[in-house]
Amino acid sequence: MRFVVTGGRGFIGQCVVKHLSDSGADVIAPTSNEWRLGQPLPKECDHADIIIHLACSILNASKNRDAMADLDHCGTSLLLQQHRALKKEGKRGRFIFISSQSAGPAAINDYGRSKWAIEALLNEEGEVIVRPGLVYSVNGGSVYGILEKLSRLPVVPTPSVPPNIQPIEVGDLAEALYRIAQLPTPKRLYLLGQIDPLTFKQMVCAIAIRSERRKPLCLPIPASFVRLAGKSVDILLQPSSSLLERVDGLLALRAMDTRDSLDGLQLVLKEFTRIVK
Q: In this model, does residue 240 exceed pLDDT 70?
């Protein structure tokens, strides 16, 4: 099978590209010199069987997030138009969009709202949406990296929210995408992550256990205080990507029923708390 992976140089993308290549697939991951979101894919991608669309602008944006959300939406729309035209010519089979557990019409973070808007574009046969939970690896990664840093503190302010964190190891996600690509008639939507959600406190403590450290003391505080801290960091330190955006993404998660998707793919996830760094 021939794959194109957009965003193939990112945290998830690098693992997906390696996993597909190790599985015997031909993989094209256009570099920034060859392609950017908002452009049609290069001609060399025309005969790919599967597109895995990971490229995203808004996730790492600290400013102009409205513009980045528009770029993500318009850029994906352009890729879909190109995909559908090639599919009519018999040159393309499937388009897999990597969304987010935070996607939804009432998402309080820009990332979740952007992913939800893009999901609405995928409405034809062979266009698949994948919503992973919190993606992690032994080397950290994205939001998980923030939680890993918190788990090193002796005392961790813990927002009072229901269990909503459903981790999935990046290699398991890559394998899930490979299996979806091989299905003769995939579903439109796959929900992927640990079946039983964790609370923020459970997640932080589990990370400490995985790293063979003492569990921190978790101090319950209102979620509004956590948001205020994230906003203060954004104002004072002006990080390259908004901390509040990532905090809102975590706080607004809603637990997913992942059992049917995992069973349908015959996928057993690595147990989060038993993986030792």
A: no
User: Hey, which residues does 5 pair with through a beta bridge?
Assistant: 52
> Over the stretch 113-140, which tens digit does the pLDDT of each residue have?
999 999 999 999 999 999 999 999 877 6
Q: Calculate the alpha carbon distances from 266 to 35, 183, 254 in Å.
A: 35, 12, 24
The pTM of the full predicted model, rounded to 2 decimals, is 0.90
Task: Judge whether 25 and 175 are in contact, CB under 8 Å.
Answer: no
Residue 245 is encoded by which pair of tokens?
């955006």
Residue with tokens 């008639």: 185
- Provide the β-strand partners of residue 136: 169
Helix locations, the chain, DSSP H: 11-22, 65-88, 110-119, 142-150, 170-182, 200-210, 223-237, 243-251, 259-264
Structure-block tokens of residue 173: 């996600």
